[in-house]
Amino acid sequence: MKQIKSLLEAQAAIDTQKMAAMTDVKNQIGKLVIEVTEKVLRKELSNKEAQEAHIKDLVNEVNLS
Amino acid sequence: MPNPRLASRYAKSLIDLALEKGELEKIFEDMQWLQQVIKGSRDFANLLRSPIVKGDKKKKIVEAIIGSRVTNITSLFIRLLIAKGRENNLAEIITSFISQYKEHKNIYPVKLTTAIPINENLKKAIIDQIKKTSDMQNIELEAVVNEDLIGGFVLEAGDKLVDASIAYDLKQIARQFENNDFIYKNKIRYR
User: Fold this and answer.
1) Which chain B residue has its CA at the smallest distance from A24's CA?
2) Of B14, B67, B99, B145, most Cβ neighbours within 10 A?
3) In what order do the strands lie in the sheet with B160-165?
4) Which positions in chain B touch A49 (Cβ < 8 Å)?
């Protein structure tokens, strides 16, 4: 009985550790993706026309009141 | 030493006097010109701030510089500042005067920051949109370029700020990847 209990506890601990590790990996991938996105966007928007088109799209959402 | 309260009081009384004499526009021009002079010449700005140079010497130098370039009220005002030993606050007083002038005229200064300089049509579209969505009808746009935005724009008007930049969006997304719930839970469990 005791053995089963400690086995279950170990299982739970492993699960948590697994999830922690997965989340960590997910976070690191997320950060990498953002870094890449930033580089790509920088390149895309270094073009004056693209930049202005993007701003044009945003203008209508401005609401200062 | 900066003293915003003092600056705004001197500026306010100058505005009141200008309104009374009906010379607001001329004095506003004087103030803009003086601001250019102070910004353009570090020596002049330092001279005004210097505690070593005596008042009457400063007065002579200032008179030589402004000469008859400004209206009578402006030159009297500056003489008054020097006589009261407040000439070190002149730059501040001018800044305050200009912002109070805009307030009086219902001109709203709006700061637009973009990653690269944008064309006039787009600026106009933005101004139109502000006019449409707020009670600010008389807008003075100050365009600033900041590459860190990557794209989009940031609008600052009075106490309002609209951040429609890519940098902001990316930061918001990056926030989602910052915490790891499972590590936090573990810490509590083992405590």
Assistant:
1) B180
2) B14
3) B138-145, B107-114, B152-157, B160-165
4) none
Full residue range of the structural domain in which residue A47 is found:
2-59
C-alpha to C-alpha distance for B55 and B97, rounded to whole angstroms: 23
Tokens standing for B18?
């200008």
Note whether B118 contacts A52, CB cutoff 8 Å: yes
Residue B191 in tokens:
């405590």
Degrees (nearest 5) of the Cα angle B159, B164, B166? Answer: 135
User: Chain A interface, mutation test: which of B183, B187, B188, B189, most A Cβ atoms within 10 Å?
Assistant: B183
pLDDT digits (tens, 9 = 90+) for B30-62: 999 999 999 998 988 888 888 888 888 888 888
Here the ipTM equals: 0.80
Among A27, A51, A62, beta carbon nearest to B126: A62
How confident is the model over B56-114, as pLDDT tens digits? 888 888 888 887 788 889 989 998 998 898 888 999 999 999 999 998 998 999 999 99
Read off the pLDDT band of B191 (50, 70, 90): very low
Comparing CB atoms, the residue among A27, A37, A61 nearest residue B164 is A61
What is the domain-level CATH number for residue B94? Answer: 1.10.520.20
Q: Structural domain tally of chain A? A: 1
What's the pLDDT at A7?
Answer: 93
Total of domains in chain B: 2
Domain limits for position B133: 107-176
User: Does the model's pTM come out above 0.80?
Assistant: no
pLDDT one-digit tens code per residue, A2-52: 899 999 999 999 998 999 899 999 999 999 999 999 999 999 888 889 999
**Is the same domain home to B66 and B80?**
yes
- Tell me if A64 is assigned to some domain: no
B25 with B84, same domain?
A: yes
Give φ, ψ of A9 to 5 degrees.
-60, -45
Last residue of a domain, one of B47, B82, B103: B103
